[in-house]
Design brief:
With 302 residues, the chain is α/β, with parallel strands linked by helices. The protein contains eight helices and 15 strands.
Length: 302
């Protein structure tokens, strides 16, 4: 695997240099563009961080928009703006969740520059790219790189020998590096808030499942973080791990009958049309560190 990692490093390094040296074209947005991304595969909390950043910007009087690759989207024409009538299966789980939680323009396009240009025409005054750290054709004003504090950089090797998309030295070029699932500073706290019933969207407190056994369903990049969160809430977990972005069907849940089902909010948006009697999702909010917010304000006021 190591020779393939060396080849991967060579290709990615040459590609990045071509953009840095302006030998390949880049597009600089007319409004500030903030990338929230990572340098490793697997979940690092980008979606809750992006949602929290949107809420912060809205409170400051800005009109933010989100550009996304739209992984898992089945729409046929790009760029595509997410709207109220779109199911998660059509636009992808993460774009759907961000739109539902924030009600700001969310634009999908495999070529992120197309999404950026569409958002500019929508009148937004700041754009957040959900992921896209390695999309160097998209010039950025600020880079927020997230690391899972429990996994950090793994074995520090590039794909396929390790989990890294770029070498650890890439972190030095980021505007801010923040950690989730950790006390390493600066850290982003991912705070559970309440459980929501899939059937009628009623809510119960975090005490509802204390001491109870649940089927913990997770089709996300880092399911172990979700399982650990439930365990810290004094819930007995039967882990039910699915691939990231898994398209859930009724059959996936037929074997889960003895205990309640608790899933992530990202998975829940794909299960709303299913007939699940005792299924819930745990909503989680991110608390952003001051150093991150200070850097964002510096970019916006610069």
């Amino acid at each position: 695997m190591v020779p393939f990692s060396l080849l991967y490093w060579l290709v990615t390094a040459v590609r990045r240099c071509l953009y840095v040296w302006r030998l390949l074209p880049t597009y600089r947005s007319k409004v500030p563009l903030i990338v929230v991304g990572n340098i490793m595969v697997g979940g690092t909390g980008k979606t809750p961080c992006t949602i929290a950043l949107i809420h912060y910007l809205k409170q400051k009087g800005y009109k933010p928009g989100v550009c996304s690759r739209g992984y898992g989207a089945s729409v046929q024409q790009f760029p595509y703006l997410v709207s109220d009538g779109d199911p998660a299966s059509s636009v992808g789980d993460e774009p759907y969740l961000m739109y539902a939680r924030t009600r700001v323009p969310v634009c999908l396009a495999p070529k992120r520059i197309d999404a950026v240009k569409t958002l500019e025409s929508c009148g937004v005054d700041v754009i957040i790219s959900d992921d896209g750290l390695q999309h160097y054709s998209m010039d950025r004003w600020c880079e927020i790189v997230l690391l899972d504090g429990a996994r950090l950089l793994g074995n520090r090797r590039l794909l396929p020998a390790g989990p890294l998309r770029e070498p650890p030295s890439r972190l030095r070029k980021a505007s801010v590096v923040a950690y989730t699932s950790s006390n390493i500073q600066p850290n982003i706290d991912l705070v559970p808030s309440e459980y929501h019933c899939l059937k009628d969207n009623s809510c119960v407190s975090l005490e509802h499942f204390v001491g109870k056994t649940v089927y913990a369903v997770a089709g996300i990049g880092n399911p172990q973080r979700f399982f650990k969160t439930l365990q810290l809430l004094s819930v007995t977990v039967i882990p039910c791990e699915f691939p990231d972005h898994h398209p859930f069907t009724q059959q996936d849940f037929e074997r889960f009958s003895e205990h309640p089902i608790v899933m992530t909010e990202k998975d829940a948006v794909k299960c709303q049309s299913l007939s699940l009697e005792n299924a819930w999702y745990l909503s989680v909010d991110a608390r952003l560190p001051e150093i991150l917010l200070d850097k964002v304000n510096e970019v916006l006021h610069g």
